[in-house]
Design a protein that fits this description.
Elements (H helix, E strand, L loop, with lengths): L18 H52 L9 H12 L6 H5 L11 H23 L5 H8 L13 H24 L5 H17 L6 H26 L13 H10 L6
């Protein structure tokens, strides 16, 4: 008669493995397989939290700067430049604070963590672009914005003002100008709406030449059409009421004001 070993079954001296032992073995193998991944994920979450915490004082300055610049809507036009300059002075306080952020970001991995930095960079860019327009009647180029913020334009390490963040920030500044145009008319300042309409038209024309591949940026660009129409409507109303000064001090050189800064960002954003 054949034995268990001869018939293909367990050897007569084999000890059967219980279901509990099999489960423990499986759990052990799963723990080994996922342990390093879970540890890496936890480390990643801790780093993201540290970056967000390092951004808090910068975000606080950004909010204060936005509040300062917002005062421009409630003062006489003669005080606009002073408010814009105070805004720039306040923004420049963020310069030394980027060090705490950049030391947390691994070398060459800025774009991996840009989600925590990008929104604030775009807001600060918006404020700088807005203030520079008020002071200089010009569009601040990306390198000028980066200088005010104390960040890099292109670097393997540290915090970078990307072309995408710059372009979105400029659009954010333009979005605020129709409101300023309306408030200027209310305050009896009929020259500022002309400056604003000319500037918005120049920026819109330059953006129209870019090949925008970023969906978010393309949607934001569409908002410029409505901003331009609002500004033109203000001018139209002034003209109907005989209040359009058509002064010679309104800039008539849109190319020199906007083409160089936008061109520096590249057209594939």
């Amino acid at each position: 008669m054949a034995t268990g070993a001869q018939s293909g079954g367990l050897p007569s001296d084999a000890v059967p493995i219980s279901s509990g032992t099999l489960r423990e073995t499986r759990l052990s193998s799963v723990d080994r397989a996922l342990g390093s991944v879970i540890a890496s994920l936890e480390k990643e979450q801790e780093l993201k939290k540290a970056i967000r915490e390092a951004m808090e004082p910068i975000e606080d300055i950004s909010r204060r700067a936005a509040s300062t610049l917002n005062d421009i809507h409630s003062v006489h036009g003669m005080d606009h430049r002073a408010i814009a300059q105070r805004t720039l002075d306040l923004i420049e306080q963020v310069r030394p604070l980027w060090t705490g952020v950049s030391t947390l970001i691994p070398a060459g991995e800025f774009y991996r963590y840009s989600f925590a930095v990008g929104p604030t960079l775009r807001t600060l860019t918006q404020l700088v672009a807005y203030a520079i327009f008020i002071i200089q009647d010009a569009l601040a180029p990306s390198h000028d914005v980066a200088r005010h913020l104390g960040v890099q334009e292109d670097s393997a390490d540290g915090v970078i003002l990307t072309a995408d963040d710059y372009l979105q920030g400029v659009i954010g500044a333009i979005n605020e100008l129709p409101r300023l145009s309306v408030n200027a008319v209310t305050a009896g300042n009929y020259h500022l709406p002309l400056r604003i309409a000319s500037f918005v038209n120049d920026v819109f024309a330059s953006y129209s030449q870019l090949n925008l591949r970023n969906d978010v940026l393309r949607r934001k660009f569409d908002s410029l059409k409505y901003d331009l129409k609002k500004c033109e409507d203000v001018i139209y109303d002034l003209t109907l009421r005989g209040l359009n000064p058509r002064s010679a001090d309104v800039s008539s050189a849109p190319v020199s004001r906007t083409s160089a800064p936008l061109g520096n960002t590249g057209s594939s954003a």
